[in-house]
Design brief:
The chain is α+β, with helices and mostly antiparallel strands. It has 21 helices and 15 strands. The strands form 4 sheets. A 5-stranded antiparallel β-sheet has the order 2-1-7-6-8. A 5-stranded antiparallel β-sheet has the order 3-4-5-9-10, with no helix packed on it. The longest helix has 20 residues, at 449-468.
């Protein structure tokens, strides 16, 4: 695909401050409130055979005396809350919850994990006094008192257990078809992002089998250098199936995309690539299907026998150390952040926090998948459909259908290793499409002068941003002289692709600025 042939929309997406909020505070003998007293976010799928609705949602109601907040069983839809001095504030935007008079003390233990993993765990946020609503919860606030009933992370055993891999493949296909039946697109059409992997393909094939053709399919170009296998495979799929396909290019300004990403993910993750999709689809669709959790619960994502053995043997601190060091950011933390801040984000603090979280999953049927889903998927990847794409009315996640999830999360871990289960479910379920290839992970990544110019502009915009905000140059968390030296060094290089350090630096400066405000 040529550099200039794809759509490159501006980053015209929602603002974090456009999200709804509700705040209540006792003052002068009565309750003073602000914001939206009744709110419904996400979508419900009523289940007469179960006490809890399917779907991904959060809603709250204020009746003048009592606030009640309820979310879905997974807690995927983000809702932040703070309970200070008897008052309460809730919102899917952390920026609303950070009240003017509230101390904005950073939670360095939570950040120690975040800097290494790229997502927060459990109910952590960057701020000590702000939490995120846990899965399957019911929060109530009345007479200045808060009550929180947490749901269970343990999935019930499926109604129909299986005894072999072949039986698992068959039942997986049946349950997934049922999940799509429960999520019909409606008469206004729908959008389906298509990649080179398995999750979106499975959704696409089952929708077509049930007579639902997407109004549009979309694929986004990955930031350079990239093989862009998603683009290649999406073209093959959509051309073979006769589907409308729209290709979306990277943002014009990678720097502004990073700023918007930090804002919309509420300082809780890193997802620059979906922003052009959000801008491209704004006002053009009200239903989208997302493959959230597919590769985790049916593809063996990040699962290895070594890690499983550590879990089974209770070597949780050892496992935590392995997980935290996989990103290889230790030298960055020590060399680029100030001594005091780096010390607060110590490896010891991160291991302690993460091993406590791992302990919550130790007795799950598949503890590693349980940990990955309830943390990386829920706290990190889940922000794509329910924070970055929050403009879209309904984002269906069929892999999180309760029956599909309960079945897959309780399977023998070996079934999903290396995508074996998912591959067979697709190949056996849709043999007419068996000739269509998957992405080739070994395809070389493309780099060139255009890409170097893209990153060079990224660095130049960052330098300009620093000069326009002199307070950033007085940071007590970033070693500004070292940062400036690194930026100038990379500007002098023929290629600037290795500027990965700019993202955590920018994140740190923005977090520090927000904490000071």
């Amino acid at each position: 695909m040529d550099w200039n042939t794809a759509s490159r929309p501006d980053l015209d997406v929602l603002s974090a401050l456009d999200r709804p909020f509700f705040a209540a505070q006792y003052r002068d003998g009565r309750v003073h409130t602000q914001g939206t007293p009744r709110c419904r976010l996400g979508h419900h799928i009523p289940r007469g055979d179960r006490p809890v609705d399917d779907g991904i949602f959060v809603h709250w109601d204020w009746d003048g005396e009592r606030l009640e907040v309820v979310n879905d069983r997974y807690g995927i839809y983000p809702l932040f809350y703070s309970h200070q001095m008897g008052g309460i504030c809730i919102s899917p935007s952390i920026h609303h919850v950070l009240g003017e008079d509230m101390p904005r003390t950073l939670d360095t233990g939570a950040l120690a994990v975040f800097y290494r993993l790229g997502f927060f765990i459990g109910e952590d946020t960057p701020f000590e006094l702000v939490r995120i609503l846990p899965p399957g919860s019911r929060l109530t606030w009345q007479d200045e008192k808060l009550s929180l009933i947490r749901g269970s992370l343990e999935a019930p055993l499926p109604d129909r257990p299986v005894s072999s891999f072949d039986e698992a493949v068959t039942h997986y296909g049946e349950l997934f078809a049922q999940a799509i039946e429960r999520r019909p697109p409606g008469q206004q059409g729908f959008t389906l992002p298509v990649s080179g992997g398995r999750d979106s393909r499975h959704i696409l094939f089952e929708l077509l089998r049930q007579g639902h053709q997407p109004t549009r399919t979309v694929t986004v170009r990955m930031r350079p250098p990239s093989s862009n296998e998603d683009i290649r495979i999406a073209r093959i799929l959509t051309e073979a199936l006769g589907l409308p396909h729209e290709e979306i290019d990277v943002p014009t300004s990678y720097f502004r995309a990073h700023l918007k990403d930090i804002e919309l993910t509420q300082f809780c993750s890193t997802h620059v690539w979906p922003l052009p999709v959000a801008a491209h689809l704004k006002g053009r669709t009200n239903t989208l299907y997302d493959g959230l959790a597919g590769s985790v619960i049916s593809g063996g994502f990040q699962v290895s026998e070594q890690k499983l053995d550590m879990f089974r043997e209770g070597r949780l601190k050892e496992l935590a150390t392995v997980l935290l060091r996989e990103a290889g950011v230790e030298s960055f933390l020590h060399d680029s952040l100030s001594h005091d801040f780096s010390a607060a984000l110590s490896d010891t603090a991160a291991v302690e926090r993460l091993s406590d979280e791992l302990a919550r999953h130790q007795h799950a049927r598949n503890p590693l998948v349980s940990y990955i889903f309830w943390n990386r998927t829920r706290r990190g990847v889940g922000l794509i459909p329910f924070a970055l794409l929050a403009d879209i009315d309904r984002v269906y996640c069929p892999y999180l259908d309760h029956d599909v999830f309960d079945f897959l999360i309780n399977l023998d871990a070996s079934y999903a290793m290396g995508n074996a289960l998912h591959d067979q479910a697709i190949l056996r379920g849709y043999p007419e499409y068996a000739h269509l290839p998957f992405e080739d992970k070994d395809t070389p990544k493309i780099a060139g002068l255009d890409y170097s110019a893209y990153y060079r502009n990224f660095i130049l915009e960052f330098v300009t941003h620093l000069l326009r905000h002199p307070s950033s140059l007085l940071s007590d968390k970033v070693r500004i002289p070292r940062l400036m030296a690194m930026l100038l060094r990379d500007l002098m290089r023929p290629h600037c692709e290795h500027s990965w350090y700019v993202r955590p630096m920018l994140y740190t400066l923005e977090l520090e600025r927000t904490a000071r405000e």
